[in-house]
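User: Mind token order:
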Amino acid sequence: MPEAALTPVPSQSAPFLAHAAKTAGLAQLAGKITAACDGAPDLMAQQVVAALRAAVVDPIVLTADQCLACPDSYARHVLYADPHGRFTILALVWSGGQFSPVHGHNTWCAYAVHRGTLTETLFRIDAATA
């Protein structure tokens, strides 16, 4: 019997179906953000926010592995990268007491909290001392 005939094929088991649902949920989120990027610029922000709010309410976007924290610092899981370089969907996971250093973004940034609480401190550059 050829070796390829012995390769297991994924069955329609509950874990497989759950992963498929999560993949479909992520595809739906990416599709909504893509549509927002392709649409009217003045509506993009509110459309992205609406897509994120729907994704956070619907827990089918993240797999269990994408919710794993790292003991040394926050974990970054790339979920989707737009083929045109317009956006990336990341799952950032912090354990209690972890933080990211003060930083800035050179582009727009939107986020939603899936589970827990996020505290954000905003800073302003003082042009006179910069």
